[in-house]
Amino acid sequence: MSWFGTRGRSPIGLDAQGRYINAVQLTGSPRRWRIDAATSVARVDPAMPLEAEELTRLTTMLHRQGFQGRDVVVAVPSGRLLTGEFEMPVGATAGVRQAKARARLASVHKCLPQDLESECWDIPKPARADGQSSVLAVACKHDEADDLINLFESAGLCVRALDVESWAAARASAPVVGDRADLIPVLNLGWTAAVLVVVHDGIVVYERTLTEHGMNRLYGKLIAKLDMDCDVADHVLHEIGLQSDDSEAGEHSEVLAVVRSYITSHLDRLIGELSTSLSYASQEYPDRELDRLLVHGEGALVPDLVQRLGDQLDLATRTLVPTDIAHCGGPLAGLGGSPALITALGLAQHRVAA
């Protein structure tokens, strides 16, 4: 299904879950994407919920920066997304699977099935029990979905779909994954959480949201412990990071050493959680190897962080950026190298046929 509208452009993929609101609009197809518009706008206060006034200013800015149309695709915030993996009888119809998955999600999360908007998909499981198949299911409560849609539409935008971040990551990474039949972990080092997604044969087979490991936790520590403001924290994280050359640091070398220790501590705690999750995925699919780890999100901007992540996990690792997926030239070239835009790019690809 293709729903490209204004002059052949995709809906605007809008990722508003972090410190920045990231937006991407595409033309083309999975064979040859082109980024026609992109932006990254700092939020007024990322600790506060989005409000209509902030989104109204964003809408005006999008049109000034070359975005066309009002159609947007946004992800259900991780805090509102309900997930679960369930066994299903082999041969059950799609309708039966959907109904059973919704009922089980409702039971797990202590709500009524009729209160949920849900989706599920089959996942391959070599270790499945006889007579059973497996599905991953996601859901959002109707009232929370309505609130989210109404918020964006009050700012003059038209929500064409509420998507799931895991599938946005799977879509965006597809050109890099190619035809590999192994397990492909895709990690978003986001502002409010780190989100691990494992893709197998183009299907999301595992996801885990680690809310204790968002980049906001690291920023908060730098600001509180070292009396930095956000601008200084940005500089030391995005320009210096884990690089160890202090030859030009002078009197600041001790401070930078402390910054690196905080980054390393934050990363090491995350690595412990990732190791557990990747080990579980490997056990579920013992006939498949873990391929390279693809990393995106704001945390992937920290110099040498992705390399350390791969070294500690003993896994080939690379940063995923928009230019891996789509042509991006001219004034957008800088944004084309930003791993923070990957979720927005995947949202823009929602329901676009090859």
CATH domain class name of the largest domain:
Alpha Beta
CATH fold annotation of the largest domain: Nucleotidyltransferase, domain 5
CATH superfamily of the largest domain: ATPase, nucleotide binding domain
Average pLDDT for all residues? 90
Task: Report Rg.
Answer: 21 Å
Q: Please give the domain count.
A: 3
If classified by CATH, what would the architecture of the largest domain be? 2-Layer Sandwich
Give the secondary structure arrangement, pairings included.
Blueprint: E1 12-15, E2 20-29, E3 32-42, H1 52-64, E4 71-75, E5 82-89, H2 94-108, E6 116-123, E7 132-141, H3 142-154, E8 158-163, H4 165-177, E9 183-189, E10 194-200, E11 203-210, H5 215-226, H6 230-240, H7 253-284, E12 293-296, H8 305-313, E13 317-319, E14 326-327, H9 333-336, H10 342-348
Parallel strand pairs: 1-4, 3-14, 4-8, 9-12, 12-13
Antiparallel strand pairs: 1-2, 2-3, 5-7, 6-7, 9-10, 10-11
Helix pairs in contact: 4-10, 5-7, 7-8
Q: What would you say this structure looks like, in words?
A:
The protein is α/β, with parallel strands linked by helices. It has three domains: 6-78 and 145-177 and 321-348, Nucleotidyltransferase, domain 5 (2-Layer Sandwich), CATH 3.30.420.40; 82-144, Dna Ligase, domain 1 (2-Layer Sandwich), CATH 3.30.1490; 211-313, 2-Layer Sandwich (Nucleotidyltransferase, domain 5). Helices cover 36% and strands 26% of the residues. It has ten helices and 14 strands. The strands form three sheets. It has a six-stranded mixed β-sheet. Strands 11-10-9-12-13 form a five-stranded mixed β-sheet, with helices on both faces. It has a three-stranded antiparallel β-sheet with strand order 5-7-6. β12, α8 and β13 (317-319) form a beta-alpha-beta unit. α4 packs across α10 (342-348) and α7 packs across α8 (305-313). It is globular and about 70 Å long. The mean pLDDT is 90.
